[in-house]
Amino acid sequence: MDPPPLLRVLRLALLLLLLASPAALAWKKDEFRNCNQTPFCKRARTRAPHSLDAPLSLVAGSLAVSPEGSLTAEISHPSRPRPLILRLSVLPPHALRLQIDEDYSTSTPPNRRFHVPDVLLPDVDSRALHLSKPKTVGGVSTVALSSDLDVVVKHDPFELTVRRAGSGDPVLSFNSHGLFDFEPLQESKPEGETWEENFRSHTDTRPRGPQSISFDVSFHGADFVYGLPEHGSTSLALRPTRGPGVEESEPYRLFNLDVFEYLHESPFGLYGSIPFMIGHGPGTSSGFFWLNAAEMQIDVLAPGWDGATSTENGRIDTLWMAEAGVVDAFFFVGSEPKDVIKQYISVTGTPSMPQQFAVAYHQCRWNYRDEEDVAGVDAGFDEHDIPYDVLWLDIEHTDGKRYFTWDRSTFPNPEEMQRKIADKGRKMVTIVDPHLKRDSGYHLHEEATAKGYYVKDASGNDYDGWCWPGASSYPDMLNPEIRDWWADKFSYQNYKGSTPTLYIWNDMNEPSVFNGPEVTMPRDAIHNGDVEHRELHNAYGYYFHMATSDGLVKRGEGKDRPFVLSRAFFAGSQRYGAVWTGDNSADWDHLKSSIPMVLTLGLTGITFSGADVGGFFGNPEPDLLVRWYQVGAFYPFFRGHAHHDTKRREPWLFGERRTALMREAIHMRYSLLPYYYTLFQEASVTGVPVMRPLWLEFPDDKETYNNGEAFMVGPGILAQGIYEEGQKSLSVYLPGKELWYDLRNGSPYKGSVSHKLQVSEESIPSFQRAGTIVPRKDRFRRSSTQMVNDPYTLVIALNSSGSAEGELYVDDGKSYDYQQGAFIHRRFVFADNRLTSIKIAPDNLGKKVFSTDCVIERIIVLGLSSGAKKAIIEPGNQEVEIDLGPISLRSGSRSVAPTVRRPNVRVVDDWTIRIA
To answer: So what's the pLDDT on residue 791?
Structure first.
């Protein structure tokens, strides 16, 4: 039932008073729990190595190969009420899966542990290889993981190691420090024992008692470890959180929360959680992924943390702690870090291929006031010759914050508004959050209530929490039936006023609950199947994102790719759309921390991400805003966004010079759209991210391992931001042995050298790597849609052998026809003064075909002798001129590079151009 009207009014008034205070919007440390206030974390973190009273061991004679080919065993200790069941399986090429749960056949607690559904790809089990019978000698069993890797299982106490088969060198180990603890579910609460936990004014009843799991994992041969989004940091590598030389610190927390103005430097968990860590060192890369959606805390332990007087060189120890769940963990080993990412992607899924418009620039604000405001902003971009593709509407566009509605006083004709935007090739996005207003006149609330589709509180009633509309309830997205129901709400019939060019933004889906413990849902709330919220908390936003994405696919009858931006995320979110780094602040530190945050998301599967350009909270200094556009133009997801209390900051509001600088940054992004789209296609197949740490391309160069200021875009472009106000010069390290060419003027720079560069207001330092070919489109239009038929430019950067190569991927930019062969995929190879275009798409993908009449109108060759005067195109023996031309078509650019002008060869054809 809805609360009485007077109570609703009082609640809402109190909420609005709270939100009206600026202080309420700042991050408050005491509103969130630390490890010492979290009993499972405090217990696990204070244990010394090998100090458990009941260390777990394999039960003698229990190790066996099951009929489906996995290795099974019992793990136990005499003090436990029931043993644990261990299962080891192998996925090609050499990923190991470790599953541990309680054996419920011996004694049955009232509830069983939660296994996270619908995150792993559905064929993971069927892909498992059949393991051979292990060899057991002296309480140690060994089984081959692959031709060059073994799995070694020590029986007493239980320990697992993945090692090199030839040398015996360990790569990853589990419980080598004896910290594996698995609190058993109890059949009833022992007399005199208290299970409740209190934090501030909230009580967690914990009716099922303690059920935490903790263990240590060691990464052998690693210089650094990476991953575990999401937290703010200016360091790409995960800093140690405990041990010698480490000041008092918290573990890295994975617990999705709505955090206002988060700290740019903190292990505190933010909006999303991916429990995946990568270890890397010279010649070795490894990864560890724990599929568990309960709260986690992870320590990265400094050398000597265990009291050892000497520390093993090249080993990083970590401690993993979770409040609930099971052990369902994957160990990945690769010869280079891309191998590890590909293996992780093989179990959680490849990133979805976005529509082309989504890769361009997005303009957002909380909130564009009305249709007149929307039209004015749209016209402002045209007036100032700044392209953009998407205009966003925040919560104020709705009728009283009821999602799937419009405020008809400010947006009386939403379909006409969208059509006017679409006439220029542009799209719109509206926000749809999970909290539904508890209003008896709101059709969605009435339907969800009648069908019993809301999450329940601990007493079995519909959970009632506060969010933007006031009293709100939350659909239970764990239930597939409810996800299907939610997906149907995006049909044109159900979402009145929506059109095919309207896409969706999921915010507040951690879920955010203003009056809940730690601004989220109570842990003892109940989901489908009698699952406690504590067990699935980190996956709630993932399921919401999934249902919304499925809704847009349904809306388009399976023909069009969806675009959905989500704030909360979990492992596998890459399959459903983009994410952003949440409510950042307009300061230089947040600009700097955005790079490690976006890079970390890419390493853990989510390549389509970015930070709010300019910062969400606060008013950026004009120079900061310019620098943020220059950095943000390289983010995979490129959006300007701001809080409603900030001053308007459309790019033309800061004077002609700064407008020109921001225009130039956005133009640069649009010129590189063919390159970005090609990289997104690569990511959709391999999982290798669009924006990459330097060490992903240069895995043996130690200078790159903890460089969180510079980044690669694909294999061909390196950029480094300006992160300090008034900075006059900076040092940029360019890895590798080959040259790098300045993106603006083609000047060459040596590799494996740190270069001290003078700072220019016109751009941030950015370079093209020798040996690469980057495709561009250099004619500037209002939107990416209007560039579809424009010609291409190829920028060839020659290496010391006089060669280079690159790729171009093209499809219709919107549909799923590419899955049936409707695309163009070319490889360009320059060698021996010849540029050759080669088809690399297989011929047997499907019945559909995509073609284009687009041609290549310019070929810029960096590093070519300036004496070349002509080129011969084959077939046809056509001769074209070569002369010096500018690197870009911006006004004032000097002619510095040999340029093949108007070869006009079609991108769809095979051809060769010979430099004569």
So the answer is: 98
pTM: 0.96
Residue whose C-alpha is closest to residue 488's, from 540, 551, 435, 547: 551
pLDDT for the residue 10: 42
Catalytic annotation on 583?
yes
What digits encode the pLDDT tens for the residues 188-247?
999 889 999 999 999 999 999 999 999 999 999 999 999 999 999 999 999 999 999 998
First-to-last C-alpha distance (Å) of the chain:
82
- Cα 75 from Cα 55, distance rounded (Å): 10
Q: Give the type of residue at 782.
A: R
CA-nearest of 232, 290, 171 to 600 is 232
Task: Tell me: pLDDT of 462 over 60.
Answer: yes
Residue 700's closest CA among 752, 654, 629?
752
Q: Is 499 exposed, middle or buried (0-12, 13-18, 19+ CB in 10 A)?
A: middle
Q: Tokens 């109890």, residue?
A: 186
Catalytic member of 510, 709, 778, 857: 510
Rg from Cα positions in the chain: 28
The span from the CA of 732 to the CA of 184, in Å, is 53
Helix (H) or strand (E) holding 622: helix 622-632
DSSP helix/strand/coil, 522: coil
Residue 22 has pLDDT above 60, yes or no: no
Residue 5 confidence (pLDDT): 45
- Whether the CB-CB separation of 464 and 471 falls below 8 Å is answered with yes
Rounded Cα–Cα distance for residues 519 and 467 (Å): 10
Give the dihedral sign, CA 585/587/593/597.
positive
Quick one: 186 exposed, middle or buried, by C-beta within 10 A (0-12, 13-18, 19+)? Answer: middle
Q: How confident is the model at residue 314 (pLDDT cuts 50, 70, 90)?
A: confident
**DSSP-derived secondary structure for 625-686:** HHHHHHHHTTSSSEEE---TTSPP--TTSS-HHHHHHHHHHHHHHHHTHHHHHHHHHHHHHH
Angle formed by the axes of helices 673-686 and 656-671, nearest 10°: 50
Distance CA(901)–CA(23), nearest Å, equals 59
- Please confirm, yes or no, whether 101 is among the known catalytic residues: no
Residues 6+ apart with CB under 8 A from 261: 25, 26, 27, 583, 584, 585, 617
Share of the chain above pLDDT 70, in %: 96
d(CA 601, CA 122): 23
CA neighbor of 624 nearest in space, from 615, 637, 635: 615
Angle (nearest 5°) at CA 269 between 265 and 270: 90
In sign, the C-alpha dihedral spanning 585, 589, 594, 600 is negative
Based on the residue annotation, tell me whether 295 is a catalytic residue of this protein: no
Question: What 8-state DSSP symbol labels residue 819?
Answer: G
Mean pLDDT of 763-792: 97
- Of 230, 507, 612, 778, which is the active-site residue? 507
Check 583, 650, 697, 811 and give the catalytic one. 583
One DSSP character per residue, 116-174 reads --SSS-TTTGGGPBPPPPPEEETTEEEEESSSSEEEEEETTTTEEEEEETTT--EEEEE
Tokens in use for 904? 């006009």
Mind giving me the DSSP string for 259-315? Answer: -TT--SS-----SB---EEEEEETTEEEEEEE---S-EEEEEEPTTTT--SS--TTE
In angstroms, the Cα distances linking 268 to 90, 535, 643 are 34, 20, 23
Torsion angle in degrees (nearest 10) through CA of 559, 565, 571, 574: 40
**pLDDT tier, 310 (very low <50, low <70, confident <90, very high otherwise):** low
Q: 401, 407 in Cβ contact below 8 A?
A: no
CA proximity to 206, closest of 221, 219, 192, 189: 189
Question: Where are the extended beta strands (E) located within 369-525?
Answer: 390-393, 427-431, 436-437, 465-467, 470-473, 502-506
Burial of 594 (0-12, 13-18, 19+ CB in 10 A): buried
